[in-house]
């Protein structure tokens, strides 16, 4: 008979979760996605961007990946921004949201950096 044990240190999980939330909050940079475009070119149609909840999920996953793989959050964020061709994760297209989540879940920093 297999006996399952619960985590003996639930306060460690709570502390870790709180730490990741704090880190995710520090990564939030006020970035206006509605900045006016100053050019004489024709105006392109507005691209639908990720919403606030999706952005929070991205930030939390950035913090989680960085924490688990022992790298800086800014490094992970720059890799995601480069992969999706945006200058800030807040400017990710809504169509790229699930792909960004999958990219972060599958990310192996030692394969990317080395």
Structural features, described:
This protein has a domain at 18-27 and 48-113. By secondary structure, it is mainly alpha-helical. The radius of gyration is 18 Å and the shape is globular. The model has no long low-confidence stretch (mean pLDDT 78). 55% of the residues lie in helices and 0% in strands. Helix 1 (10-27) packs across helix 2 (52-69), helix 2 (52-69) packs across helix 3 (73-84) and helix 2 runs parallel beside helix 4.
Task: Explain the layout of strands and helices.
Elements: H1 10-27, H2 52-69, H3 73-84, H4 97-106, H5 109-113
Helix pairs in contact: 1-2, 2-3, 2-4
Summarize the structure.
The chain is mostly helical. Helix content is 55%, strand content 0%.
Which sequence of SSEs, written as H and E, runs from N to C?
A: HHHHH
Rg computed from alpha carbons, rounded to a whole number of angstroms = 18 Å
Poorly predicted regions = none
Number of strands: 0
Query: What is the tally of helical segments?
Result: 5
Helix-and-strand structural type? mainly alpha
Mean pLDDT, to the nearest integer, reads: 78
